[in-house]
Amino acid sequence: MNILVVGSGGREHALCWKISKSPRCTKLYSAPGNGGISEVAELVNIEADDIGGLLKFAKEHKIGLTVVGPEVPLVKGIVDAFKKEGLKIFGPTAELAMIEGSKVFAKELMKRFGVPTADFRVFDKSDDALKYLNTVEAPVVVKADGLAAGKGVVVAKTIEEAKAAVKKMMIGKVFGEAGERVIIEECLSGEEVSIIVVSDGSNIVPMASSQDHKRVFDHDTGPNTGGMGAYSPAPVVTEELFKKIIDDAVLPVIKGLEREGRPYKGALYAGIMLTNKGPFVLEFNARFGDPETQAILPRLKTDLVDIIERSISGALAGFKPEWDPRPCVSVVIASGGYPGKFEKGMEITGTDAAKPIKDVFVFHAGTKAGRRATDKDKVFITNGGRVLNVTALGINFKGATDNCYNAVSKIRFDDMHYRRDIGQRAVDY
Ligand code: AMP
Ligand code: GLY
Predict the structure, then answer these.
(1) CATH label of the domain that carries residue 278
(2) 173/196 same-domain check
(3) Ligand 2: residue whose CA is nearest its atom 3
(4) Which residue range is the domain that position 334 belongs to?
């Protein structure tokens, strides 16, 4: 069948790479895709949130399955629009994508279903939020309710900082409508892990555990980013802890929504903090994680298309995917300046040398295919903040990390930046 993958990041390249190997896939399209994806799929020049355009394309090209990477089209109702036209699509409806699209929706749902999460209060007036901050102690966390491209959370070390965040969101409206309501919540501490499952509305298939690296510089310093690297599995998540997270944090949501008559289908990502009181949910996302997916999919031996089709048709009960036991490490190479201002258009060299290394995968994020002005050779040029996800398997974390950084060392572009310590926590564990 013809398959369409919506999105243009490293996660979508990993999805396309995996899907392109499925015997179920005859032709793969990606909208809008990126330079690396163009090597495994035909790129379609339609933006990921242009639901009308994507629907028209899917009908015209007899797309048998659409897989959505990012959250924005899900929140905007791509699944509803495709389903209405009888088209098969993977992901939750707009109503349930609000589990990511509104932090208030997610927190209220967690409260209703007894999922452990930080105590919180919701405010829609800045005066009330500021007054409330006079009654609590720092540290405290301020969150914009809506989507803010990963920038809507401030972990404030002082009450002044928290008040400044409230003012920025509610009065300065830096996130527009997304910051008109805020949550002020208890600050938790502990190690963070990502647990992603695929649900068919009633049953789930867990993906392997993983850990992200959110800060831009080594040793978790500098500002938060969309993620500077990931590895899978997360060594802190023992089998017993994995089961506890699924039982306490994930299944109550899936079963609770099913009971409410609105089954959740698609990927569900739980951002978990392992506190000394047990695992607490920091957030839910309505999709696969980025960059976690890049470290998870190389370990998945089962056909992803089979899992996705079972999610849509409600056939995940008793299904067990097969995993490569070897760990996987994925390092993000970013443009200098990211997550602040950065330049695009730099020529990337060395991906050809990195790709053939055994057990290495070079997933592209912000790249596009271009031509050198002088000799017309095809080259990749930088086209975003996070540029490449260099990924490697290894016999253990040390092996995977060494393999990954060896591949990274082949790659160059002006002003490139990457963390040198991705995977180190797992090596030292
Ligand atoms: P979120 O988008 O809600 O996952 O928040 C982004 C990041 O903010 C998380 O990955 C955590 O590092 C941090 N964070 C969110 N909520 C809390 C909390 N209640 N306590 C401490 N840190 C938090
Ligand atoms: N890696 C964090 C996210 O996908 O939201």
Answers:
(1) 3.30.470.20
(2) no
(3) 289
(4) 328-428
The rounded Å distance from CA 153 to ligand 1 centre is 7
Question: 31 C-alpha to center of ligand 1: Å?
Answer: 30
Bridge partners (DSSP) of residue 63 are: 2
Ligand 1 atom 7, closest CA: 153
What is the CATH number for 423? 3.90.600.10
Tell me, yes or no, whether 392 and 379 share the same domain: yes
320 lies in a domain? Answer: no
Q: Indicate if ligand 1 lies below 6 Å from the C-beta of 187.
A: yes
| Cα-to-centroid distance, 131 and ligand 2 (Å) | 32
Q: Given the CA of residue 230, which atom of ligand 2 is nearest to it? A: 1
Q: Name the residue with the closest Cα to ligand 2, atom 5.
A: 289
Overall number of domains in the chain: 4
Give residue ranges with CB within 6 A of ligand 2: 212, 227, 285, 289-290, 292
Q: What is the pLDDT of residues 326-377, one digit of tens each?
A: 999 999 999 999 999 999 999 999 999 999 999 999 999 999 998 776 666 7
- The answer to whether the CB of 71 is under 6 A from ligand 1 is no
Cis omega (within 30 of 0) for bond into 339 = yes
Segment-wise mean pLDDT, segments of 10 residues, the chain, 429 residues: 98 98 98 97 97 98 98 98 98 98 97 97 95 96 90 92 94 88 96 98 98 95 93 98 98 98 98 97 97 98 98 97 98 96 96 96 95 75 97 98 98 98 95
Residue 38, CB-side half-sphere exposure with 13 Å CA sphere:
14
CB atoms within 10 A of CB 428: 10
Please check whether residue 319 lies inside any domain of the structure: no
The Cα angle at residue 111 between residues 107 and 116, in degrees rounded to 5: 90
Q: Which residue's CA is the nearest one to ligand 1's atom 9?
A: 282
Beta strands in 146-242 (DSSP E): 153-156, 182-186, 191-200, 204-206, 211-212, 215-217, 221-224, 229-232
